[in-house]
Amino acid sequence: MTAEHDWLTDEQKVMVVTFADAWDWTDYVVTVDAAHETIASVSHDVNLIMHFKSEIPKGNPLPHLKRSGATQPKNTRHTAFVTTGTRFIKVMTEIIVNNKNWVGPKYVRTIEEALAHFEALAQEEQETPSSSSE
Is-contact 24 59, C-beta < 8 A? Predict the structure, then answer.
């Protein structure tokens, strides 16, 4: 299994879940569940980066992607998928997003792009006061 999760920095504001080399959907579930538990252990909002360094494994990703979105802790703010792989995972996620009132993840090619995306969203949220909570 080459699936792991860790904080990007000591500030514990960005969780990175990395999938590299040979991993399977069981590895995905175990690692995402552990990441969610770690995110839930802090009291502040956390952005989540799912970093796919290798192609997704065989098998139907839909139930796993759907479950991971549904089980995110309440303090998970925004999600970005870092991937240079096929469009398959993007298409599957879009199917889930279109079936729920949920803003799906941003697809980027680097962790730096993910961080820039999170920063832009934070700035936008500061400039536009919300009249209702998410």
Answer: yes
In this structure, which amino acid lies at residue 133?
A: S
Name which residue leads in pLDDT, 120 or 84: 120
- Its pTM surpasses 0.85: no
**Count of residues for the chain?**
134
Instruction: Determine the residue type at 51.
Output: H
Residue 36 half-sphere exposure toward CB, CA atoms < 13 A:
14
Q: How open is the CA angle 112-91-108, to the nearest 5 degrees? A: 5
Structure tokens at 54: 């290798």
User: Residue 83: what are its φ and ψ, rounded to 5°?
Assistant: -155, 145
Helix (H, G, I), strand (E, B) or coil at 26: helix
